[in-house]
Design a protein that fits this description.
single chain, mainly alpha, elongated
Length: 92
């Protein structure tokens, strides 16, 4: 482990950031999973409600730097597309 004062501070900061990022990612994965489960069960109302909850969580993770903004955009796009195709399939 480091001995310099600045390196010790950097280590403390990295531990705090790691725990914060892990918490954000955990919430992120849970929200994405809830959308996917609702889509698999073909429950349109639950899927749309879960998507409305998941999109701000994904965007928040991107704004904090936990995930890249393009990664967030891709996740939102794919989840939205899966919910929309499910609703189109049920309409026909």
């Amino acid at each position: 482990m480091a001995n310099h004062k600045s390196a010790l501070k950097r280590h403390r900061q990295s531990l705090v950031r790691r725990s914060r990022n892990r918490a954000i990612k955990s919430v992120l994965r849970t929200s994405i999973k809830s959308v996917r489960v609702a889509v698999e069960q073909n429950s349109q109302e639950e899927a749309q409600a879960a998507l409305k909850v998941a999109i701000p969580i994904i965007n928040r993770a991107a704004s904090k730097g936990t995930i890249h903004k393009n990664n967030a955009s891709r996740k939102v796009s794919r989840l939205t597309r899966s919910v929309n195709t499910m609703s189109e399939a049920s309409a026909q």
